[in-house]
Amino acid sequence: MRVLIADDHDLLRDTLVMFLEGEGRMETASVGTFQDACARIEGDAPYDLILLDYNMPGMNGLEGLRHALSLKDGQRVALISGEATRQIAEDALEAGAAGFVPKSLPAKSLVNAVKFMAMGEQYAPIDFMTAVEEESTNALAEKLTPRELQVLKGLTEGKSNKEIARDLDITEPTIKLHVKTLYRKVGAANRTQAALIAREAGLF
């Protein structure tokens, strides 16, 4: 089983090599940049799996993943990352990645994941993919209804009541009513002030 590891952190790369080669049936190669990874994919005998770090020199995220997938008749490529979100993991799987591996995985689980993907399966840890991501609450946002937030967003974009009504597919008088209510809730006297308050609160 041949595995290529591309990660710019020397310690992590060496640790992965040690774990995988400790299995006895794995042959590994390792590089520290995306460019070097592409060169090895093109120049070496086919790999059973290529592990790419989501954030490393030249990688450019999912774009790099797609490029690696297109090389040399499309070998199996998986993402490994310490900070990628669940959305990035989902996008990677949809793009055709063999899997997504968080760097927080215990060594044994990581080795098993690599074996699983190298054998042709798609892998992503269930607990990571189903974890509820905590949404940061915004004090100003909590004062407003979802519809009022949509209207306020329209105001920050400089749209007229008519344009906001068209975007939200509701009547202009209803928009006027929402505007009046949200002015009172956020403490604004006019559209400009409401937009400024929203921006200062980091809403949009």
TrEMBL record:
The modification 4-aspartylphosphate is found at D53. GO terms for biological process: phosphorelay signal transduction system; regulation of DNA-templated transcription. PROSITE patterns: HTH_LUXR_2 (PS50043), RESPONSE_REGULATORY (PS50110). The keyword Phosphoprotein applies. Signal peptide: none annotated. It holds the Pfam family Response_reg. Residues 137-202 form the HTH luxR-type domain. Residues 2-118 form the Response regulatory domain. InterPro entries: CheY-like_superfamily, EvgA-like, NreC/VraR/RcsB-like_REC, Sig_transdc_resp-reg_C-effctor, Sig_transdc_resp-reg_receiver, Tscrpt_reg_LuxR_C, WH-like_DNA-bd_sf. This is DNA-binding NarL/FixJ family response regulator. It comes from Sulfitobacter noctilucicola.
